[in-house]
Amino acid sequence: MINPTMLFRIKNSWSRFTTSHPKFPMFLQAASKNNVIQENTVLEIKITTPEGKNLSTNVKLTNDDLALFNDLKEMAR
């Protein structure tokens, strides 16, 4: 069962995050509207530390991944 208190904390944290980083939700909205997130799409994440170290990975999306994203989108409404 979902803990309502945790959902409230996540909602508040997301609000602070999007206030600090307004381009990120705009990026997600653009990706969603332009139908670029679909099966076999590759998502890549790259992290660069202040010291210049890099770490990156990627995933090729499956139908199960898309179902998870849709569930999260519905839960956010």
Automatic annotation (TrEMBL):
<protein>
    <submittedName>
        <fullName>Uncharacterized protein</fullName>
    </submittedName>
</protein>
